[in-house]
Structure formats: C-alpha cells, structure tokens
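> @MW can you paste both from yesterday?
MW: sure, first one:
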Amino acid sequence: MANSGSRIDVAHGASPPTSHVAAWQQGRARQHQQQQQHQQNQHQQQSEIKKLPLVDESGRLNIELHGYPKLNVYFVDLFHTLVNMPLKRFSVVLVAAYAALFVAFAIPFLAFARVDGLDCLPGVKRLDHAVWFTVQSSMSIGFGGDLTPHPDCFVVNSLVAVLSVVTLGFAYALLGVFYVKFSRPTRRAGTIKFSQYMVMYEEFGQLRLAFRVADFRKHQIISAHVRMLAALNNNILAHEDESVFKFSQLPVAGGSQIYLGLPCTVTHAITHGSPLYGLSHSVTRGKQGDAR
C-alpha cells in the first residue's frame, strides 16, 4: 500500500495537465499580441516620419542621405563647406588651422636654429620660442633681439620666405570665405515670415490654396517674387518604405511684384490644369505631399 505522503510522478511521454496547456497558450497569445503591437508602432513611426515636410520653417531640408562617403563630399568642395559652416565651428576651424600652420613651421625652425656651429636663430632654444618666431614671421610683426635670423643661414631664410607665401595664401582664401559668408542674404531672409499654416477655401465655386507673407523690416525688398512648388509622393512607383516625389510648379496669383511692406496673400486656384486637381484630402493636407 502506497504511503499517503509519497510523490506521484507523471510518466515519461504523458500529457501535461490541462491548466499548464491553457497557461502556455495564453502566454503565446500575449507574445503574439506584443509582436503585432510592436510592428504597428514601427509602422506608425515610419508614417509620422513621412509626414515631415521637405523644408522646415527655417528653410532647412528634412532629408537624410545614406550610402555615400560624407567626408569626401565635404572635402572636395572645401570652400563652400567653410562658407556654409556654422560660425562657432568655423571659428574653431580657423584657430586650429593657424595653430597647425605655426606648429608645422616651428618644428623645422627649431631643427635649423643652429647649423654647423652657426646660430641661425639665437633666441630659439625651445619649441615655444620657435612658435613665437613663426607668429612674428607670418604676421609681419618684425623681428627683434635674438629672434632675428642670421643672413648667412640659407635654410632658415628660405623657410621664412615659404612661410610668408603660405600665410598670404591662407589670408586670401579666408578673406574670400569671410566675404561670401557675411554678404549672403541668409540673415535678411530670416526677417521675411510666411504663414505657419496654408489654408484651403472655396471662392466662387472654386477651391483655392492661400498663405500670407510679410517683411518685418523697414528696409523693404524691391521687386519681390513668390513661387509655389508642390512635391507629391508617387505611391504607384514607390514601395511601402520609399518616397518618389514629383515636383510641379503651381501658378499663383498675387506672387509677382509684391510689396512686402504690408502682409500679402498668395493664392493658387485648383483648376483642371492644376497638379492638385482631383487629389484626395489626405494628399492635400500634406500626408503624401508638400507645398513650398
């Protein structure tokens, strides 16, 4: 007779209890629901990303490029890279470039300070002395005291001549960058404000798109023109995770020869010849397109 406190084991290959099967099925169902919820969240995030306008309110493009060497693109056109660089970053690059120039020429000046027992640079005994000599030579400050190079030292005087030419090249290049950087009308464009929202209304039985533009400065722009460009996402050619945009210029009324002293209303009539004619409400609201 078996003891009442003995343990009863399930034989190998026997079916588990019904409660265990139900718990396992519920766990699988919850895991499947979580996966579906995660996929829906990802799809919603991708949809929200597609809703971003091509150009934001500050005029910057909401576009990210992938699959190309970014450094090569910026270094190939170094001039425009410096022109479009933010002022703080440009200041850091400017200081770093001149510091590298001074140190690069200070090393050979220190190496040739004494040649064959001749003191070519009597005052240069350490690297910092050579750096200060390079600064005085490149900026045409003038030599004084022991920092005057000996006229019989051909290498040192040749380095001074090369340093002068390189410094002039630096100065002329930076002069062009400064002129283009500070003469661009970027800051001036910041005083011209557009409507935050574009409206659609019906006038005389015809739908119209409209927005307002105004200049907040007293010095007005002469002969200003406004153009409207529509970027529509072609869902037929594009896959689910792609965007193939078609750009069309929209004819506008009130956009030519406007006077920005007062707020001006620019409108586009959605007629049969308009690229927006026949589009759904979701497209015209910007979910699959953009107008700038």
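MW: second:
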Amino acid sequence: MTMRSLIILSVCVFVSAYAHADQCNVGDHKMEDCNHCNCVKGEGRPAVWACTEMFCPKVKRDTKDECTVGDSKMDDCNPCQCVKGEGKPAVWACTRKLCPRDKRATEDECYVGDSKMDYCNTCRCVKSGEKPAVWACTKKVCPKIKRDTEDQCTVGDTKMEDCNSCHCVKGEGRPTVWACTKIFCHKTKRNTEDECTVGDNKMDDCNSCRCVKGEGRPAVWACTKKFCPKVKRDAEDECTVGDQKMDDCNSCRCVKGSVGPAGWACTDMACPKHKRDTGDECTVGDNKMDDCNSCQCVKGEGRPAVWACTKKFCPKAKRDAEDECTVGDQKMDDCNSCRCVKGSVGPAGWACTRMACPKHKRDAEQCQVGDFKKIECNNCHCVERPDGNTVWACTQMGCIKVKRNADECTDGDTKVIDCNNCHCNKFGDGSTGWVCTKRSCGVPINLPKSKRDTEQCTVGNTKTEDCNTCYCIALEDNKTDWACTKITCAMPVSRTKRGE
C-alpha cells in the first residue's frame, strides 16, 4: 500500500469517527473554548457543528503557577497576564504564538533575513543565541490540497471555491497546489426566491449576507454566523421592525428573524421587585416617595402598572401618638439629632441619627451646655436632653493604640491611611502618637495626602458623606474638624447587561 493510500485511509477513519461524535440538532448552540458553534444542516449528510475559528488563549492552571491579578510575564515569546478565573484562583492567560523552533537538519540552515514558503506557512531565517541560524515558520493549519493533475496551477493564480478564496502556492518538494481559506459557507438555499445576483447584500436575522458565485453552481448567499438573541414570537406580541418598548426595566426592539414574523428582542437585566397590592396600582410615568425612597410607575409585562422603588436604607421614624410632629421640626434625642419627616403612610414622625450615646452618670457627668472635652481621640460636646438634663455627646471614631516609639509625631500633624484620617495627639504622659478614624475602606484609592489646612471647616457648617450628616465642631486646640453620624448606608446596586 502506498503512503498516499495510507494517508487517505487515515483521514477517512478520522472524519467518520468525528462525524458520529459531533452530530447535533439544527439550531443548537454551544461554546468550544472561546468559539461560538451553531448546529447546521449539512447538504446530503446529518446536521453538524459549525464553529468560529478564533485562536483562544490557553490558561496554565498548575498550582505552582498561581499569581496575583494584574501581574504579567513572558512565556518564551508569548506575553502572559494574570487573570481571575470564575470560581477558581487567579491563573496565567498567555497568547499562543508559535515561537521559533530550531530545525537541526544541516541542509535546513540558512542566512539571517532569508524567507520562504512551507506549504501555506511563511518561514523566516532567524539567529538564536550561539546556535546557527534556522528557519522559524508560522504554524497555520493548511487546507487539504487537491492533488488531481487537473487541479494543479501556476503560482499566483487565484479562484473562488464557494465563499472561500484560493491562491496557487508552491509546495516544498511537491507540485503547485491550491491553498484556500476555510470560511464556513452558508449552505445554499435552493428555493427559487432565494437565488441572487453576485454582489447583492442582505440581513439574515442579525447576520449579514453577501451573494457569491459558487463553483459549478448558481450564485448563493454566504452569511456570517453570529449568535443572534432569541426573539419572542407570541402571536399577540408581534410587531413592526424598528419598534421599541419597555418590558419592566428592560428595553426591547422589534427585529426580523430568519424565519417567522418579526418579534421582540429584549435586554435581560434583573428588575427590582414591585409592590403588587391592588391599592398600589398606578399610571405609567407617575412618581412618588416611599419614605426616603423614590418610586416610578412602570408597565409590567402581562400585569398592571406597578411602583418600582429604590432600595435605600431609611432611618426609622418614631410614630408614637405623643411624639407626632410637624414636618421640618428638629430636636435632640439623647446625643442624636432628629428631624420630622413625612412617610409614605401614616402621620409625620421623627427620623433620628443612630450614634451610640454614652451612658449618663446623672451626678458626676453633668456638664454645662457648650462645654467641650476629649475622650481618647473623640471630641465631646455638652448638650441638653429633652428632660432638661445635660450630657456629653461624643464622636464615635475607633481609636488605635498609639505606637510610642517608632510612630511618634509632632502634635497637630495629620496624615491619611487608606480612607482614614489620622491626627497626632499629645497624651497625658507627654508622649505623642497617631489616632485615626476606623472607616471600612474598599478598594484602595490613591488620594493626595491630607494637610491640616485642608481639614479645616467653619463651626456650624454641615455636609453629607453617603447617607450620613457631618457637623463642623471646634477642637480644644482652636482647630476644627468634622463629626459625622454613623448611619448604615445602603450599598449601590450595579447592573450589567447579560451577554455583553
């Protein structure tokens, strides 16, 4: 048996085994690594997978090769970057370029700068260290070559095979042959109404099609194979191409499918849960406040319009009959400040800050309104309670233990550690040390270092940080600083479109 016969037999066995293992149902979709695959009907054979042929990065998953996200390195001639895997530790993701490999045969040595073709691959002569120059070739998968005598050609000739372009190349140690691209060509629709004129264009669902001349057959449509969003085709929901609507919080656009009538293609965002009480129905576009949250009336799919509200954490309002108030009134509740607000239901009530107030010693801890003192790193002011007694109201910063040696500083200095402000304080024994706020910092942000003059404020001024109110107070060293409430603020919700 000749070598050619053995090769042909091996290819037939491989193709047969592959065909049985990879059959599918027309219309199915799957991913193979980073490539999209669609199940298509073959002409005169069972349906098979047709996949894009993008080159996917190969990820090294050895435990010893784990890394920190953002790191980079070189693996031979390939650059690698450390990426976060889904549900697994960070790993190296590298490109898969073919790095030069020395051909050791004496007859294959060359002069640096020479180039040649090895079948459909380009080779260039390169110098590698102290070794002799060798050929470094690309490693493209070359198309199978038709070796029939009638299919030989002249180098430089071109032709089309279905939607693929072919170039005549010189093989190494073999006659000239056709090297063709391997684009997946749309199977020809043989219906009379689908024949076309070469050069025509059209859209098939979300794919673009071009009319091309087939070899030995009429012109046909060759289309891209992008994965198109599923279209809702309920009879009652048909539409005109180009129409738009909202489906709950998702936006929809009417598109033409490859088969059947036009239908709605919608985004797939998770929408806030709606209050569905009969008494809470509304007219689309209406707005209202639900406690401290803003609400908008939206149209649900297959249900009446409902209120969609934000989910901010609102301070509890005291609604005892004896404690009702007029909107806008203010008072102190222990060391907390209260404001009279209107809720979505029921009478107005007090909404108060939630600072932890010190336990009151009724005798020794009495003070004069306006007095000031410090407890560790916190500032305390004497305030009057509703019952007429006076108490100390203090900020609630978490004070750190002072390093008395290496971290000593000059009284009055300031600095920033992550998102926390630090002040240099003088202690009773004459030593100095840093006392810092203890906010929970998220992802580190590079902020300019704070100087004392940037922290100054005017006594009596207020500002907000998230949902907390801050008041400018005077310190005992004739400087000023912000003292803020400690309300737990709702975390913002970040939404992304699926499929992007």
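> thanks! DSSP finds two helices and 35 strands in the chain.
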